[in-house]
Amino acid sequence: MEKRHSSCPEGLNFLRQDAGKEESPSTFTLLSNLLRNSRAAFFILARIKGNLRALATLRVEELQNISFVGPARAIQIKSAIHLAYRIHEYCPKRPILSSSFDVYSLCGRSMENLEKEHLKIVLLNIKQAFLQINTVAVGGIHSLPASPKEVFRPAVAHPSCTSIVLIHNHPSGDPQPSPGDIDVISRLVKAGRILGIKVQDSIIIGHNNYFSFKDERLIE
Q1: Count of domains in the chain?
Q2: Residues 67 and 148 in one domain
Q3: Do 119 and 197 fall into the same domain?
Q4: Could you read off the pLDDT tens digit of each residue along the chain, which spans 220 residues?
Q5: DSSP H helical segments within the chain, as ranges?
Q6: Is residue 5 part of a domain?
Q7: Is 93 within 8 Å of 103 (Cβ atoms)?
Q8: Domain ranges, residue 144
C-alpha cells in the first residue's frame, strides 16, 4: 500500500521527507531515534526549520530550552555532532592533499560552525599525504602560544612531517583575511623556514566557503 503524507505547515516540510525506507531515513526519523523522543525531535526541527547547519550552531543552553529537550538531550545532540565531525576527519588511507580544496574537504567543513576561532595545523609527509591534524590555539589566531615553536611542536615531533597547512575559521562566516591574519601567517611562514617545516598554505574557513593564501599568492 502506498504511504501517504499529510500536508505540513510551511517550514515543517522535514516531516514529509521520510519515505519509510530503512536505508534512507529522514532527518526527523534520525533525530527521533537518537533522542528516543519524537516530540523533542519535532520541536528542535521546527525551531531550525529543518536546517541542520543551524542545529550545529546552537549552544547547549539554547538546545536545552527547547520543549522536551532539557540538559541531557542537549548534551547528547552536541556529542553526536562532534562525533560526526571526527568521523569526517578520520582518514585511514592517508589521502594526498595537493590543493586547498583537498584540505577544505578533509577538515574545513567541520570548522564552519565553531563558535570560537580555532587554529589547526594539518601535517603532511614528503608526498603531501595527510598524517594528522592538531588544534594549536582556540579563541583566535591572535591567541597563539607565546612562541611559534609551540605552534610547530606537533610537526617537529612527527618523524614523517615535512610540511604543514595552517587552517583557522572565522565565526562571522567571512573568510577574507584581516591585516592581523596576514601578519601572523607571515611570521609563522618565516618560523617554519627556520624550523625546517614548510608552510604549504594557510586556509581561512567561512560559511560554506574558504580563502587560501596559496591560491591568492600570499604564500609562495
Answers
A1: 2
A2: no
A3: yes
A4: 334 444 444 445 555 554 445 556 788 888 999 999 999 999 999 888 877 778 888 889 999 999 999 999 999 998 988 887 776 655 556 688 999 999 998 888 888 888 888 899 999 999 999 999 998 888 766 555 546 877 898 999 898 999 999 999 998 899 999 998 998 899 999 999 999 999 999 999 998 899 999 999 999 8
A5: 27-35, 38-48, 52-57, 60-64, 70-89, 100-103, 148-157, 179-195
A6: no
A7: no
A8: 93-212
